[in-house]
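Example 3.2
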Amino acid sequence: MSDATIRKLTWRDIDSIIAIDQKVTGKARESYWKNKIIIYSGLDPGACLVAEADGKVIGFLLGERKDWEFGAPQSGWIEILGIDPGYQGKGIGHLLAAAIIEHFKKSQITKVQTMVERDAENLLAYFRSLGFAEGSLINFSKDI
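Structure, written as tokens:
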């Protein structure tokens, strides 16, 4: 979609983000999103982006730079991605990813990471199409 633009997220975007999430999940999670945006915009405001077309927010991406313990280099993380279902499959996610990767490059970051559920086939295909491959981290989980 060539007429979409990417810009930094602002507080005016919160209602649009909540609406996109509700379309995807079927749940209205206003306090969840307000908290997430406070956290991520405080960590790395340049890694909080929205995609806009015709004056309407159609997607968003929240990321951050993380320092690691034991001297491991800083890396960029793509934490949350949301695309309005009516705009999925139109390259919006690729535009958002290109913008955050450029942001990380300007910050001297040389590695970008994310985590995806094994059965999230669409997300796995999306990240693979961006050149991502399985990394060396292993996620551990325990039901309690």
